[in-house]
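S1.2 Input.
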Amino acid sequence: MDIQDWVEESIINIRSDGFSGIQTALYPVYKKGLHQLFKLSPSGELLFEREWDVLIILDGCRVDVMKEVAPDISYIDTVSELTSVDTMTREWMKKNFNDSFADEMAQTAFICGNPHSDLLLEQTKFYSLEEVWKYGWDHELGTVPPRRLTDQAISLSRDISPPQMIIHYMQPHYPFITEPELCNGIDIDRFGELPWDNIWERLQKGEVEKNKVWRGYRKNLSYVLDEIEILLNNIDAEEVVITSDHGNAIGEWGIYGHPIHMPLKVLQTVPWIETSASDSGTYTPDQSQSNVSTKQTDPSVKSRLSQLGYR
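S1.3 Output.
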């Protein structure tokens, strides 16, 4: 938004909403100030600077919610922490996957559920790049169900046994698969026409209760962690790490969701969980969707990012 657009929109908000309109008008200025403070924040740790064989990314996962659910997950002993390099997936991808890590990327199979990969990752730079969101997107849910990434990861592990592997699940990021009622009022089936009215904006407006959002977020995390148990029992890897690209704000410093360049600990600090995996051969993945033509199933990157709440 340029200055003229901001002034015009601010005048409209103030005239219609009074003091509340002033707060709305000043909010973008406030966020710009936080962007400047981000320059003083810790730079974070890059993924290839740490040791791992398999790296599992949980999109938008807070440390505190992970610590809440961890006691119920058999393969989690300790929830440590990592400072992420940014607070939005796009910038996180830019910083972690570039020519500085060309050798590491060439040895890594990346199974990705996040549509930002289409804009930032190149097939030829990786041992294998499987953009599951292109054929595994669920129109009704408005996201990629975790099983579709699990199936692809297990198949790839057994078929080509890559030196390293990254699996980027979309959960616990909204939409919450386990709490579909929280999608009420959001038309997730109208590709490319979804308004910026996701759960975090609704929470900011007071249209939904905070405890309901937290419950949905927490259950969405438990849901994907149960899925990861299937993965860990059907691949072989000595060093498996579960982490996240960024956290998620629920009102801290007046911020909701995960805007870019935010100096908030709840956004910058993510879980770092070390475990292992052993292929018991007890699960056979469904590969029926793995080679579907994306010309029919992928209307646009922009529309799918909009379903996930990105402008």
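S1.4 Remarks. The two ends are 12 Å apart (CA to CA).
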